[in-house]
Amino acid sequence: MSTARSWESSTPLDTAMTAGSVLPRGFFDRSAEEVAPALLGRRFTRRTAEGEVTVRLTEVEAYAGPLDAASHAYRGPTARTEVMFGPPGHAYVYFTYGMHFCVNLVCREAGTASAVLLRAGEIVAGEELARSRRPRSSVRDLARGPARLCQALAIDRELNGADVCDPAGPLRIMAGDAVDLSLVRTGPRTGVNGAQDVPWRFWIDGEPSVSPYRPHVPRHRGRPTSDG
DNA sequence: ATCATGATGTTCT
DNA sequence: GAACATCATGATG
Question: What is the pLDDT of residues A144-168, one digit of tens each?
């Protein structure tokens, strides 16, 4: 088949790298659906003055550009999506639902919008700091979901555009630790209102930190009613 | 476990 | 004005 699981043929670009280095920018210079499964299992580290928190990525989602009705970049560049149209290897952070942030890693060359949403991870370092940021959360739920992950890692709009391939930067994606592709599962994306059938959600089989699948349900804001 | 709903502000129409 | 790449909470099984 020409279409089935074409991402499986992608080759790791970091086999010769040591565990302490970041992924090279070239890793991101290909389509989001190729990059997404290759990110699973890798370490993603946030540094602040308080210390570092690291997650092992367990769930991601790919978004393409103008051909993907679910992508923020579908209708062309705007002030919000400017970073998505920029060079690869940078963080696209957006604010949603009036209170949450989500983070993507930008793929492909400048001018072509494509990105991978980081949906969930397992905390592997800095758990105490992560718990202080989400004091009511169980350990399992600390980074289980895209907005929770941003909370645990203290990611907000200040990090929009941050270079995740910069080894000295506040956000780093590390080389190494990729999971074997035999452990990768795929399915429809979560929480999107268009192109839901594209199987561009990727996760590691059996991981407790993977978020439960919910079909998207549009809801309008509650209105005051005249009868109370 | 699932389901329903309120919270909240930015972006785009 | 409506939608939003969501989460916490409370009800229910």
Answer: 999 999 999 999 999 999 999 999 9
What is the distance in angstroms measured between the alpha-carbon CA of A136 and the sugar C1' of C9? Answer: 12
Around Cβ A197, how many Cβ atoms within 10 Å? 7
* Predicted confidence (pLDDT) per residue in A19-52, tens digit: 589 999 999 999 999 999 999 999 999 999 999 9
Q: How many residues does chain A have?
A: 228
**In the block, which residue shows the tokens 């200040």?**
A158
Q: Select the CATH number that applies to the domain covering A21-204 from these four: 3.30.70.120, 3.40.50.1820, 1.10.10.10, 3.10.300.10.
A: 3.10.300.10
Through-space separation of residue A97 CA and nucleotide C4 C1' in angstroms: 6
Q: Which helix (H) or strand (E) holds A36?
A: helix A32-39
